[in-house]
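QA checklist item 7 of 12: single-chain prediction sanity check.
[x] sequence parsed
[x] length recorded as 453
[x] structure emitted
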Amino acid sequence: MSRNEYPKQLLNLVGNRSLLQQTIGRLEGIEGIQDPVLICNEAHRFLVAEQLREVGIQSQAIILEPEGKNTAPAVSLALQWARVIEEGDPLLLILPSDHVIRDEEAFKRSVNRAAHLARANYLVTFGIAPRGPETGFGYLEQGEAIEEAGFVLRRFHEKPDEETALAYLRSGNYSWNSGMFLFSRNEGVQAFERWAPTIWHSVGDAWASRTEDFDFLRPDPIAFSNCLSDSIDYAVMEQADRAAIVPMDAGWSDLGSWSSVWEVGEKDDFGNVLKGDVVLESTKNALIHAEHRLVAAAGVSDITIIETADAVLVADRGASQSVKSLVQRLSGLKRTESSAHRRVFRPWGWYEAIDQGSRHQVKRICVSPGARLSLQKHQHRAEHWIVVSGTARVTCDDEIFELLENQSTYIPQGSVHRLENPSTLPLEIIEVQSGSYLGEDDIVRFEDNYGRA
């Protein structure tokens, strides 16, 4: 379900909101909290902005990483942004956007304790109370207590083997590494300048040469490419003189596998976690997620079945870590299922492939109210557009005209054209492409509302 073009953070895996939307929503009610700053990949910028709009959240900024460089450069970008705040020394709460936290009140209590330590000049991370000898997480080793708020952070430990994980669990001095942090801007800047100066200066150069369009801030990609890739854990936190752990027991999960989705899901009387159109007979302890059609299962247990528009996964529930290997094989075979869903989102809406042959392709296209595609042409294909619902405004060379429901038009190969939605309701059309080449890269943009021309 998580694809390169539509990652896990944007999915509704647990509940009716995406993991990103849940992350921002659980901040409500924390004293002094401000609108969020988001750091994401360039390719996901409009998806992130749309998810914020859906839940009525206004961001202070959306910072676009030119490429993934692990958490230390990402946090450096947040600190660079925070330097523009003139009043006081604000605290930065750093949260990955792909976690599930069941007990939000316990989460807020831990944040408040961490804020107390951050104001005392500690760099704070959150340690999750371990529920077992988990080998898929990193661990935090705690030292002596700091007042009643937390403990000295003694050391980070990589993912252990089972015997080591059992030893950690028995000692009582270890917690799971959550990847969440809280510290003041000034302490964060000083820590990066001292312990990760190469990363800090590379990010600083990229930030100084940033550009801005719409609500997006774009660090300079060339300067950013010179930055080392490292985690904040090892680049800064493990080196710091005043690093602390605040325990958190809040029903946390990083949803790193389908088995963890089953663990946090709401179960029926037979231990099954179900979503979508599912019918069962003599089935127990299963995770079944149906998106587009009926999924029926009989006489099975401890199984994972995930159905999407273009693929079905069937796996033993205990072997869900093997999904990563399957995805790597799909990528090696150059299968598009590893990178995109059948429904592909764009800043103006989305399109979905319905049928494809050697010289034709049929798409369902939805254009959001007030949105429009780029002014463009194709070298190798012609297009037929049929309006299913809504109103379409069409540009075709020198003509501009409107189409209503059940009306259609033809866009010849090589014609400069544009589709837009002038109404307050979504526009849906069926597009039939025909030609010698139907790839998405057969496009020349002359004008675009989203900076892609």
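[x] summary fact logged: The chain has a mean pLDDT of 94.
[ ] second reviewer sign-off
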